[in-house]
Structure formats: C-alpha cells, structure tokens
Design goal:
Oligomer: single chain
Shape: elongated
Number of domains: 2
C-alpha cells in the first residue's frame, strides 16, 4: 500500500493553513493570502506547479449516476449550486463546512457523498479531482511489467494512454486520495512522472 508523505509548511499565516497541512499532506503551502483561498504547490515528476485551493467552493463528483440527488450530504444551509457540467457539480459553501468536510466530518462519515476540493490554475481555470491518475513509466517497462508494478501497490491499469510515451491511467478514488497517490508515485524509481487525471474547466470564446 502507498504511504502518504508530508511536506513542510514554508510559511504559516493563519490557523486554517495548519488544518490544511494536516489533511493535505501532498501540498506545500507557501502563503495564505486570505480566507478565500490558499496558495499550494504540487509536483509532476521534476516539475512543480502552483494552484489556488478555494476555501469556499467544493466539487460534487457524481460518477455515472446523473440522477443522483444534488448536494446529497451537504448539510450547509448557505450552500449554492454554482454550475453543473456532466458529472461535476460546483458548490459554494461556507469556510466552516469546507473545514469540517476535510477534517473530522470526512473521516467520521458524518458527511455523505463524494467531493473534491476546487483549485484554480495560473490560467484561471478551475480544476477538480474526479479520480484516477496518469503515470509515465520508464522506458524498458512493458505492459506486463507495469501491471505487476501497479498490482504490488494496490493499483489497477484501466487504460493505456500511449505506448510511445509508456503512459497509463491508473484507477483511484475521486478527491484528495488521487492527488496523494500521484504525489507519492512521483518518488517511485520506476515512474518518470505522475499526475492526477484532472477535470479542467473549459472556457468558451
């Protein structure tokens, strides 16, 4: 099984940042700009990326169940549906609810449903973690080698992306766990790079 690793907080400016450190071990927090978002960093291979983690938005992951009741488990009277695109529903929630979901509530099972944090990348697009990760394996590893390697880590190949780049999609749950796993795999000697299979907002011009 993959063990979660913890990165150092480089700058702590508000108490909520400490909470994020405890529950988001894949992130390196550089600064807390205000109560609406946190500046975070994560890695893809040798590359480091910067995102904003929004404190007042959350994504509901519906999977294949399009008829799932909206906001099932969001017991926040002030929650508002921002948008609904295919199997992703974006909600505006209070900071207190966001904190509860990613701390005690989630582990205790008090909040039902599958949710992901909402991030904003440098281009201004929102990003969500619907599940699964993409890995680029070292040259010389064939499909059989990768199946054996993945199985030893409790992971399963669900798609071959490209034989030329030796890349595969591995099955993981939606939400934080997929980013934790991706971050851990970036430290594996058999992996060139690993990244979550992000859902990214599309702008129409």
């Amino acid at each position: 099984m993959i063990k979660k690793n913890s990165l150092k907080i480089t700058c702590l400016t508000i108490p909520f940042a400490a909470l994020l450190f405890i529950n988001f071990p894949f992130l390196s927090l550089s600064s807390a700009q205000n109560l609406n978002y946190e500046i975070v960093h994560y890695s893809e291979g040798k590359k480091s990326h910067t995102l904003k983690l929004l404190h007042e938005e959350i994504a509901e992951i519906n999977g294949d169940n399009d008829g799932q009741e909206r906001g099932k488990g969001i017991n926040d009277d002030k929650a508002e549906l921002i948008s609904e695109k295919k199997n992703i529903r974006l909600w505006k929630v209070t900071v207190d609810w966001h904190r509860a979901y990613f701390s005690k509530g989630r582990q205790a099972g008090d909040i039902k449903g599958t949710y992901s944090p909402v991030f904003i990348d440098p281009s201004g697009r929102k990003r969500v973690l619907p599940g699964n990760i993409i890995v680029f394996m070292k040259k010389g590893m064939n499909e059989g080698d990768v199946i054996t390697w993945a199985g030893a880590k409790g992971l399963k190949i669900i798609k071959i992306v490209s034989r030329y780049s030796n890349s595969y999609v591995l099955s993981t749950p939606p939400g934080i766990e997929s980013l934790n796993m991706s971050n851990e795999l970036n430290n594996d000697e058999s992996v060139v790079a690993s990244t979550p299979d992000w859902w990214t907002e599309v702008f129409h011009r």
